[in-house]
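Checklist before submission:
- one chain only
- standard amino acids only
- sequence pasted in full

Submission:
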Amino acid sequence: MSIEINLPEVLDDVTAAFYRYEQALTGNDIEVLDELFWHDARTVRYGASENLYGIEQIREFRAARPSSGLDRQVQNTVITTYGRDMAVASTEFRRAGTEKIGRQMQTWLRTEQGWRIVAAHVSLMV
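Returned file contents:
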């Protein structure tokens, strides 16, 4: 089996979805954040201090988290697509006032509704 890596049109689509998510995250646009996660009980998001299983727990977390101090700068972003329907996005981020480097990985899947995050992990380097 041969999988085509980084087909240009697929990479463009996932890159746009990734940066749309980033804009929604720093702007606390909960509606777009919810839209971009797969609405399924099997969706997983491991955060810096929480493990969330299923879209309902992810929604509850988003609704309860503070809406300030979300600005960050991303760096070393790598997006790789596998065929036409799957991708992984990895990035580092920094927030003002701290030297800590954050890391974020997302697994994206093309669904009937468009590209959606099916798994995510966020952590901070100590």
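Reviewer check: The chain is about 30% helix and 35% strand.
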